[in-house]
Every structure is written in structure tokens, then in C-alpha cells.
Amino acid sequence: MAQDPIHIVGGGLAGSEAAWQLATSGVPVVLHEMRGTRGTDAHKTDALAELVCSNSFRSDDAETNAVGVLHAEMRLAGSLIMRCADAHQVPAGGALAVDRDGFAEAVTAALEAHPLVSIAREEVATLPPAEWGQTIVATGPLTAETLAEAIRAETGAEALAFFDAIAPIVHFDTIDMGKAWFQSRYDKVGPGGTGKDYVNCPMDREQYEAFVAALVAGDKTEFREWEGTPYFDGCLPIEVMAERGPETLRHGPMKPMGLTNAHNPTVKAYAVVQLRQDNALGTLYNMVGFQTKLKYAEQVRVFRTIPGLENAEFARLGGLHRNTYLNSPTLLDGTLRLKSRPSLRFAGQITGCEGYVESASVGLMAGRFAAAEALGNAAIPPPATTAMGALLAHITGGHLATEEEGGKRSFQPMNVNFGLFPPVEVPREEGKRLRGKEKTMAKKRAMSRRALADFSAWLAGERAPLPIAAE
Ligand SMILES: Cc1cc2nc3c(=O)[nH]c(=O)nc-3n(C[C@H](O)[C@H](O)[C@H](O)COP(=O)(O)OP(=O)(O)OC[C@H]3O[C@@H](n4cnc5c(N)ncnc54)[C@H](O)[C@@H]3O)c2cc1C
User: What is the rounded CA–CA span in Å between residue 32 and residue 35?
Assistant: First the structure.
């Protein structure tokens, strides 16, 4: 019997990879891409999988870098995006950078040539109709307005954001807890808390004034003209607050009230930077209220002047961008289906991952999950010990949701990083001899080895038949 096609809306990094994974599994695909009939504010061509900005897929180091591990897993899974990136690589040291035109043309040509792929150059302006059956929506950070509004109507107004407001995230084990301490403001326990839910970094007056001056002077990224300036009170970049006056931050996110320095209880801090647990594993903490347009290098330099964060390693740096994305931890199930309408699966940056490689990898998973279902197999997510599984687990539930002041949601886009992986034991022989940075590198190597072994095992077992239901 002929297989019904799976429809995919959006032929970017995620949609193209999802289409390839379906087609190479033997499932026909109709890929709907609006470029060719209308554009977006950032894309310049009609090619599938166009890279809208940098031409880098970041580090290709699969031993000590989480995005390098993601590359390696994608290659193991037969990724079209990685195959074309490797074929169109340009010299870039340890990074995988590509000739953008050659890369996008190769992805387009491979999909156009595949007998199971049809490409429809058209905008999908409503939620996919029921007769399409299983559909993957991969319309990206610049999803066309009418479809975005239709998704918003389905998910609820608060569930689809049009801008992100990203505060930096720090690896907990790089915070100096000899200077910082755990405490919630006024020791409030609240629902689900302990009274010690925040990491607090104290500043004296001199440190605070130097910090405010550094924020004001720091080099910033400008908004693109078409992005507008999405500032609203309650979500101002930290440097814009600093520009409003030297006392603003001390009365805002850096207020010292209700906090007592556990290391020095008799001296009141002049200002306090608070970090809140970001993932269920407790390995990542976000800097509360520190969304910023400071350039990345500047963020690292200025934020490392905060007492306790001198040696901080950042899992994610801050930013504010035009970005359409779902509150996925509450909306999506473990295989990226919309809980309220399981025939719709989401993929790519609209799910709240961040970056070309991450978007393509979520497309890869969505394509494989949809193929498994279409072929009557179980859709099994990769284990959380793999780079793909760790990213998926974060998007679909690992992020620790908190209600911000004013009822704002806390989920913000995430790139892949080792903080998302469950902790690993460094083999005794290796770990015993190592200290400091060397030990951290050994941990990264152990996580990478485990990820690649577990990913290969997942691929091997993925096509296992559905378990027979018990009588
Ligand atoms: C301006 C900008 C710069 C970025 N720079 C970088 C960077 O340098 N490095 C990095 O790693 N990441 C970057 N990103 C983030 C992100 O990783 C990329 O946007 C990535 O392309 C996301 O992949 P995607 O497949 O989810 O979306 P996209 O690649 O954007 O693909 C979505 C596709 O859906 C199509 N589409 C949208 N709506 C509809 C509709 N209603 N009907 C039919 N088709 C539709 C679009 O035309 C597009 O082709 C950037 C994002 C933006 C917006």
C-alpha cells in the first residue's frame, strides 16, 4: 500500500534535515517552503537551508566540545546537513565553516533529486489541515506572521514568543562558593523552594560602581533595522537599566535587600547578583535579570568582575533577538509533538533550541520520530547522555520552569552544552592524577565518549519493533 506523505512546513536547516531523514527511511515527503514566492527579513536567496548570518557550524571537536559531539552524532545518523557542510568546508581552524552558497545549493540539489521528496514553493498561512495527517512545522525564528498567529491561537498567547530575552547561564561548578552563598530573598520558601534557591554574589560600593560603568561603556550589538527595539519594562537589557542612572540596578535585579552574606554576616552587601537554577540536573544557573545586548567577549570580561564569577564558564551568553519560539517544556511531548494536537510536530529553532547545528539536529530527530511512526515503529528519543538527547530533554522538560515577576515565563532558547548532560564519572585511573582545568577536560572527554557510544547504541536499537501490549 502506498505510504501517505509527511508534510513539512519550512525548508530551512531543520525542515531540510527532517525531509532527508524521512525520505532515506522510505517515507515520502512534501516540503512546503515559501521562499521563491515571498521572503523573510533575513534570508537573501531561494535555496533550502540558507545560512542567514555566519558561515560557521562552530567547533568540530568531538572530544571536548558539545557542539562537536553533536556534529559527530549527526554524521552517524546520516545527516544531509553535515554531509553537505563537510563537502563545502572552508579553512577555519578547529571550527567547521562552509562556503554558504555551495552548501545551500548542495542541500537543495540533494532534496530536489530524491524521488520521495516533492518541494512545494508556497506559504502555508494556516495551521496544517487535518487531511495532511502527520506534519512537521519547522518555520524557524522568522515564521511568517499569519502562520505564527495561527500557532499562537492554538497554543495560547503566552506560549509563543516573538522576541527572546536571554540572560547568561553559568556552569554551577565554576562558581566560587567561597564568595557566593545560597539564599532566597528573605529566606522565602515559596511553593517548591527551600529558602536557599538562589546563588548570591555580593558587591561592595566600589565594585558596584565600577561594574555599572563597565556595563555603560561596554561594546554592544545593535538591533537589525527590521527587528525594531523590543524593549518593555520588566525585560530591559541590563546595560539599558545601567544607563538610566547609577542606582537603577541596585533597586532592580541587583537589590541587596533580604540577603545576608553567609561568609560575612555583619557587612551588608551594597548590591547582589543573583543566579537561579536553570535545569533539573542543577548543573546550570542563569543570571537573573541579566538579558543583554553586550557583545559576547564583553559579557565574559565584565561578568567575570562579579565576585564569585571570576572563573565562571558560560554555557550560554546573553542576547535579545527577534525570535519566534514556543514554550516547549510545557507544550511539546518527548518526541516533539504538540500535546494538544499530536498530529503536529515541531522542529528547529521554533522549539527553543538556538543555532544552525542545534536546529538541524532537532530537525533530524523530528524526521526520525515521524518516520518511525509512519512505518509502525515506536518513536524512541535518544538517551539524555547523548548531545541530541540532552538538548531534546532540555527543550521538552529539563528546563526548570519558574514564574518570573509579572507572570512571565522563564524558558529561553538554548544551545547545546555539557551542562545539559547528566554528570559522568571520570575513569579512576584518569581522574586520580588530574586537577582543575585538566580534570574539567577529562570530564568533557568522558561525556563525549559516553555520548557517542550511547548514540550508536540508540541508532542500532531505534528500529526495534513496538513492544507487544500485555493482555
Ligand atoms: C538574523 C539571524 C541571524 C542568525 N545567525 C545565526 C548564526 O550566525 N549562527 C547560528 O548558528 N545561528 C544563527 N541564527 C539562529 C538559527 O540557528 C538560524 O536562524 C537557523 O536557520 C534556524 O533553523 P530553522 O530551520 O529552525 O529555521 P530557518 O533556517 O529560518 O528555516 C525556516 C524556513 O521556513 C520558511 N517559512 C517560514 N514561515 C513559513 C510559512 N508560513 N510557510 C512556508 N515556509 C515558511 C522560511 O522561509 C525558512 O526557509 C540566526 C537567526 C537569525 C534570525
Answer: 9
